[in-house]
């Protein structure tokens, strides 16, 4: 039987893990969007694809670069869940 404190701790750990996993791509997407927005404001180019394509490429590059770390983090989290699932 799982008690309330364990369930709350599991939810908190899951949310923190989700934030840590998503943070690299979100931060790079935000930085790329800010940079491209500034460049668009300076050059007065207001085409939507100019903003969209570089952000997607930057986020894809970060995803490829961070994939080993992300997999390691998710495997460790899953291992922790399975270890704690067997303990009362």
TrEMBL record:
Keyword rRNA processing: no
Membrane-related topology note: Multi-pass membrane protein
GO BP: any one term: protein secretion
InterPro entries tied to this protein: Bac_export_3
Lineage top rank: taxon: Bacteria
Transmembrane spans: 15-39, 51-71
CC terms in the record's Gene Ontology section: plasma membrane
Keywords noted in UniProt: Cell membrane, Cell projection, Cilium, Flagellum, Membrane, Transmembrane, Transmembrane helix
Annotated compartments: Cell membrane
Keyword Translocase listed: no
Record-stated family: Belongs to the FliQ/MopD/SpaQ family.
Listed name of the protein: Flagellar biosynthetic protein FliQ
Gene name of the encoded protein: fliQ
């Amino acid at each position: 039987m799982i008690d309330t404190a364990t369930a709350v701790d599991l939810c908190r750990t899951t949310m923190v893990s989700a934030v840590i996993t998503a943070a690299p791509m979100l931060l790079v997407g935000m930085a790329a969007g800010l940079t491209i927005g500034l460049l668009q404001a300076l050059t007065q180019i207001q085409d939507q694809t100019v903003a969209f394509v570089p952000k997607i490429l930057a986020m894809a590059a970060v995803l490829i670069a961070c994939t080993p770390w992300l997999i390691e983090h998710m495997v460790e989290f899953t291992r922790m869940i399975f270890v704690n699932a067997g303990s009362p």
